[in-house]
Amino acid sequence: MFDIGFMELLICGIIALLVLGPERLPGAARSAGRWVGRTRRLVRQFTSELDRQIKAEELKEQLRKEGGIDLDGVEKNVRDGLSKARDYEHLLVSDEDKRSDRSAPPAREEALEEAGYYAEQDAAAAAAEQRASDSDAPQDKQATPENRT
């Protein structure tokens, strides 16, 4: 990147020794090393994220050209299916449950809503995981039932 040779480094070291002195030079060298390391990590993270975004866009464009899977349509179909399943949920409850739970407590209704919410979240996470695995990019940690609190 920069064309710095041994002589330039030697001259910088001698000037730093004269300006800082032998007591403060090791601490300054450590600080400079930390800053250089942080800068390199930041640049490496930025370039890797940029590469991932470019690969994802190329994959989306390739899917559009080939007339492949419409991921937005798949997500919409999953949500529609989940909403229809909630409409017929009362058919899955047995007669004994209906007799014992004449008045369903609000906690049960909240739990059902929460379960539906997590089902939608799981479907979205599965779609994102499928997209990530198709692009062969490193995956971020996905939301799973074990990770929820």
SSE order, as H and E? HHHH
Give the overall silhouette: elongated
Helix content: over 70%
- Give the termini separation: 47 Å
Largest sheet: none
What is the residue-mean pLDDT, rounded to a whole number?
76
Strand-residue proportion: under 5%
Radius of gyration: 29 Å
| Multimerization state | single chain
Return the structural class.
Answer: mainly alpha
Unreliable stretches, pLDDT < 50, 5 or more residues? none
Number of strands: 0
Per DSSP, the total helix count is 4
How is the secondary structure organized here?
Blueprint: H1 6-66, H2 71-87, H3 95-100, H4 106-134
Which labels suit this protein?
mainly alpha, elongated, 149 residues, 4 helices, single chain
What would a concise description of this structure say?
The protein is an all-alpha fold and 149 residues long. 76% of the residues lie in helices and 0% in strands.
Q: Could you characterize what this model shows?
A:
- 0% of the residues are buried.
- The protein starts with 5 loop residues before the first helix and ends in a 15-residue tail after the last helix.
- The radius of gyration is 29 Å and the shape is elongated.
- With 149 residues, it is mainly alpha-helical.
- The protein is built from four helices and no strands.
